[in-house]
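Re: that backbone. Tokens:
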């Protein structure tokens, strides 16, 4: 398969390196790089994909994987005219529950929303550290099956799920609670503070309420589970929204918290905790 990966960050670089072991991969990046190297406990994998920095140089592929931050969709979209042939499909590998809506120029029938759990870090241009094998979930349809098949032979467990809406909102429930680390600048251990844990539960409860109205099957116990999962993580684990704030970058608060506010308003549901903490984070930038 001819695959183009837009974005050479931690997720994009790691996926590109694995896919390049068995496919023809092009990396679309802002800056040139010579190769990719992924460090794992089991050893190192290397790849030398074609690297493009100019959308005008793009040629049609079978699959386009967008792995940029959600706020970079406009720049990512500049690559699509050159990459998307009539039968090409677009996989949107981003946080949140609005993957299909972010690229309206591509038919929904050709767009695959992707949920990914892949602990990886970029230490330098083209140099990545992969902490765990990782998982991918996509809708259980023809496009989802075809996308999951791209990862056959890799360590990444890519599979379809019959209820993608629920899976996406469950991931959002975890992500929305991470704003407490961005505000306190404390890693996962912050969830051991019972006051903070209750704030996290409140954020997740709002997510559950809105998610159910959007068609997700979310249990009440998910709020307690998110806190428990966070306390069981490595105490110094830093989530992406905290890492972005510490680095002075834009955050994905819109896709992680404000989406709950927006969709809550659509259904006439108040989401005061997500709204308030998002506002505090914006004022702290």
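Recovered sequence:
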């Amino acid at each position: 398969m001819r695959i183009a990966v837009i974005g050479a960050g931690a997720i994009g670089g790691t996926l590109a390196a694995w896919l390049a072991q068995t496919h023809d991969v092009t990396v679309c990046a802002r800056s040139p790089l010579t190769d990719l190297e992924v460090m794992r406990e089991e050893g190192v994998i290397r790849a030398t994909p074609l690297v493009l920095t100019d959308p005008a140089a793009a040629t049609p592929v079978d699959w386009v994987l967008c792995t940029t931050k959600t706020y970079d969709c406009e720049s990512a979209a500049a690559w699509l005219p050159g990459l998307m042939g009539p039968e090409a499909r677009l996989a949107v590998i981003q946080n949140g529950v609005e993957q299909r809506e972010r690229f309206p120029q591509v038919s929904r029938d050709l767009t695959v929303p992707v949920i990914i759990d892949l602990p990886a870090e970029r230490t330098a241009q083209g140099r990545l550290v992969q902490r765990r094998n990782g998982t991918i979930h996509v809708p259980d349809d023809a496009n989802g099956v075809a996308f999951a098949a791209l990862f056959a032979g890799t360590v990444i467990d890519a599979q379809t799920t019959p209820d993608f809406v629920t899976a996406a909102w469950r991931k959002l429930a975890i992500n929305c609670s991470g704003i407490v680390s961005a505000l306190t600048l404390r890693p996962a251990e912050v969830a051991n503070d019972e006051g903070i844990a209750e704030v996290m539960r409140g954020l997740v409860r709002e997510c559950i309420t809105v998610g159910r109205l959007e068609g997700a099957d979310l249990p009440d116990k998910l709020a307690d589970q998110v806190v428990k999962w966070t306390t069981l993580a490595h105490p110094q684990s830093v989530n992406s929204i905290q890492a972005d704030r510490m680095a002075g970058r834009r955050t994905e608060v819109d896709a992680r918290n404000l989406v709950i506010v927006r969709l809550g308003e659509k259904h006439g549901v108040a989401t005061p905790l997500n709204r308030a903490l998002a506002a505090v984070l914006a004022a702290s930038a």
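The chain has a mean pLDDT of 95. The chain has two domains: 2-162, 165-284.
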